[in-house]
Structure formats: C-alpha cells, structure tokens
Amino acid sequence: MSLAIALHVLSVVVWVGGMFFAHQALRPAAVEVLEPPLRLPLWVATFKRFFPWVWLAISLILISGYWMIFKFGGFGNLPLYIHIMNGLGLLMMAIYLHVFFAPYKRLKKAVSAENWPEGGKQLAKIRMMVGINTILGLLTIAIATGGRYLIH
Fold first, then answer.
1. Is the pLDDT score of 100 beyond 90?
2. Distance (Å, rounded) from C-alpha 31 to C-alpha 85?
3. For residue 137, with 0-12 CB atoms within 10 Å meaning exposed, 13-18 middle and 19 or more buried, which class applies?
C-alpha cells in the first residue's frame, strides 16, 4: 500500500506541479522576453518533453489509485471525498487528452509551417485548458488531503 500511495502522490506532484510551473512562471517569462517566432517553438519543445511525463503520471495515478480503491473493497466502501477526487482526476485526464490530441497537434503543425497567428491561437487554447486543469489539480489535492475533515 505504501508503494501505491508514494507513486500516486509523486505522479500528482509531477503533473500538477509541472502545470503550475508552466502556467504561472514559464508562460509569463516567455511572453516577456520572446517574440512569437521564438516563443511558440519553445512551447512545442517544452510540451514534447513534458507530455511523456504526463502520460506516465496519468498511468501511475490510475494504476495506483484503482489498486488502492480495490484493496479497500471497491468504491462502495469509500467516503465521498474519494469519489470526488476520482471524478475530478478523470475530468483532468479528459481535458489533458483533448489538449494532447487537438490543440497541441495543431500547434505543432502551425509551428512547422511558421504560421505564428494560428500557433498563437492554439497555444491560447492550451493555456486556458492548462489553467483549468491546474485549478482542478489544486482542488483535487485539497480534497484528497483534507477531504476526510471537510466532506462527510
């Protein structure tokens, strides 16, 4: 059980922490010092390195989370806050899948073609969804850690 908890928490830290850093630190710095012809390829290169870690994190979150759930006898034996954590996590994963397979794919295509306006449009979509996912991630962490005291 301790291995599952450790993998679960570390995976959440990698994913949510990475989104927080990218959204709150890297994005404003990139906007401040780089023009779109440099900024957009930076984001493609950053996502190219970060997204494999997100895929791994999501896989480990699902495997460790459901392993712990079924170790406790399934969903019927769990408190409400665990159900909320699970639902928010699945929503975050759906948002990530959309980002990966839609605007990120279009961003890479636009950057390859040096179509900076289209690239900017796709990056703005990604930024909005990453912002939402960051908020959902922080909320999920709060529920996971304080839920037993907040939600009965």
1. yes
2. 33
3. buried
